Amino acid sequence: MIRLPVIKPEGPAVAALHTHVATIRFEYDDQNRPWLRFEARYDLRNEMRDALGFSLQLEPGTLQDLTLTQNGAPVELSFVEAGLLAAQMSIPPNQSSELKLTARQALDRLPLLHVEYPTETLRRWRGQRSLRIELITGTALERDAWLRVEPGSWSYSPFASDARLEWLFEGEIPPQILFQSIAPDAWRNLQQLLRSAVGGAPSSYAALAEHYRELATAALQLGENAAYERFLAQATAAYLDGIRQAEATDAPVTRSALLHAGLAALYRERIARGEGLPYVQSMINEVEMALRGLMVDDPQRAELEQWRVDGLRLLLTDLRRRGDIPAALALIEQLRSLSRDEAENDFLEQERQALLVRQAVELIERGDRAAALALAGDLIDTPTLQPPSEYRNLFARWNVSTVISDRGVKVHVDVRASKGREQEAQAALEEVVRTWRSTSELRAMTPEMRTLADAEGQGSFELTLQMPVKENGAGLARTLPSTSDWALLRSFLNQL
Question: What pairs with residue 467 in β-bridges?
Fold first, then answer.
């Protein structure tokens, strides 16, 4: 960014600014080097009866060869705090004085120009100020190279023979004059690349696209998102034009590989900026096309292959988020076919197992337990997918039946322990039965417990109770442990 200097007065005694004329000119010198040349004139008036002395300050920025004169005589400038230049000024009583400030800035090796002239600083001067600002682009910058010109109240100078923009202000001063453009050398290079690309080799389109991408990067650094989008779209179009040209001429895939790789890089840049999934599949497609045309030992292959994996992983994350498990599983298989890394394969296997378990849970929620077990039964029972035993219920299943007769109610309870907690479950049941037997009002119910043979190798037990007529199960329920393991049995007994 180039910020042009504005002279501002310091102190209570200030001259009146009558007119201010500034000229910003872009041109090439005899060595074909591009320059910005700046000249500003200040017509100052001392309207007092006494001589007026005051201080001036300005910020030089990056400008070169900065000079200041008063009525043609050089004015000495010296640095003060914060990198500012300062000078002392005197104007005789009832006299005028002209300050002339000149500077220049080399513009070579710049992709874009961003020039600001902070005219609001001129408000520090007294008086009814009349301003004329000229911006002369000449042959260095054609109209198509301009990006932003502000304020929009400019007009072409009516009597100039070259391209000259002009702003006129009376009294009211705008905050700043802003001019953004492609820099002269970058514009000249762009015109050459455009001419070379028409009907040219694929490499000429790649060079044009890369030039647009450099301009886009420069625009982004300036915070100019609109210009960034414009140049990135032009880079994309250049790559696509080159690809179409290669296809039309039946060029071998080795000649268009560079174009596909460059287009993949543009899509990847958009993904990195958070523009998301619309560009992921496009990037993967371009990577695939580029890889077809690259030699096996090409150093760019490894980078492109990693881009493909990164893109597929982004798609996998999206499929998991949307719950499209079949598509996610298919994508995992595609990733596994591309992976040569053991750690990557382990990660993908964990992802596959997690998706199968998730799909099985959905089947169970829909009531299709058999299909869920067929799909992921082994995974569900895998110890690594189970919570620690202390966080699992003691019991996996309760089956309760009753027989009512004139003698009372006979209760029959089949209990299956959770896998891995069989001994704990048996000990807990035995303790409950002992408690019932040792309690005088419950002893008559003859509680019994025995261990059953289980074909599946899981602990199963049988509880029996004989409740006399007019008795209920509330006393039995009160003596059960208060943990959630016994909630189902407690609820049943309270209802008897």
Answer: 409
Q: Could you tell me where in the chain the CATH 2.60.40.3680 domains are found?
A: 2-181
Confidence of residue 122 (pLDDT cuts 50, 70, 90): very high
Helix axes of 300-322 and 280-293: crossing angle, nearest 10 degrees: 150
C-alpha 178/C-alpha 150 separation (Å) is 5
CATH topology of domain 389-495: Gyrase A; domain 2 (3.30.1360)
Among the listed residues 146, 144, 168, 143, the one whose alpha carbon sits nearest the alpha carbon of residue 155 = 168
The verdict on domain 2-181 having CATH code 3.40.50.10540 is no
Range(s) within the chain of domains with CATH label 1.25.40: 198-315
Residues carrying CATH 3.30.1360, the chain: 389-495
pLDDT for 57 beyond 70: yes
Cβ–Cβ < 8 Å for 418, 425? yes
Given the candidates 1.25.40, 3.40.50, 3.30.70, 1.10.10, the CATH classification of the domain at 198-315 is 1.25.40
- Which tens digits make up the pLDDT trace of 309-349? 889 889 988 888 888 888 888 888 888 888 777 777 777 77
Please give the structure tokens belonging to residue 370: 């058999």
Q: What is the structure's pLDDT at 253?
A: 86
